[in-house]
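Researcher: Please translate sequence to structure tokens.
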Amino acid sequence: MNGRPTRFGMTAPTVEDIVAPGFSTPWDAPMVPPFPFRFRDCRIMTLYWRTDPDAIDFLLPPPLKRTGDIACAHIYQMNDPDWIGPYGEMNVMVGAELPGKATGGYSPYLALSSDGGVVHGREVHGQPKKLGKPQIEARSDLLVGTVERNGIDVITGTMAYKQRAVEVSAIKPHFDFATNINLKAIDHIDGRPAIRQLTSRALTDVAVHEAWVGPCTVELRPNAQLPVFRLPVLEPLEGFYWRADFTLVAGTILYDYLEAGS
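Model: Translation complete:
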């Protein structure tokens, strides 16, 4: 910040600082990282399953359309991200498109063990993040991914430990989850809608160090506060275990509901 000096050994923000991109509160200990920020040594378990197309349609906000009947869950161990520090994350996605404009993966559910990650995802991307405890464990010859919320393992996924290596291009067999689409909804303090948008972001500087594939199992348990069970497992498909670095950068506004309705 280019603010005014104070006796606290740091500058106080000016109005120009407050209205600049990347500003966050409290200003002497900001919560939300500015773009870009780097994630290093991430371990990811990606689980695919066939689900009910009607369930996908129920969860997609219009005018998004589904592109298939496949859901996936990414369970991350974020070992060394800027600002936020180590934490676990889960992102459930389904293939979706905004006709004529964008295709990718829409996220109806996310859970994180980081308060900063939850706030950033909700305030900036519009991701429906909630606190939870995602983790990946190697239990002898089995990789086990779990997502706990309210003492309930809402997702349990398994696959064999590192049996068949694949190229990085293989980890997106059903839809391009690298383009993440989200519904951003924020109100003014007086209750009027301030933001109603479909947003999109793609990771940059992605370096995948290894990737492994194998048959997977996916078990979903009901939880009213993290209802991933709404995407039932009709057929478990393949799982991938991969390790990567990437950078999170600013995204784009795909669709503005308030402008479209004006």
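Researcher: Any highlights?
Model: The chain has one domain: 33-180+203-250.
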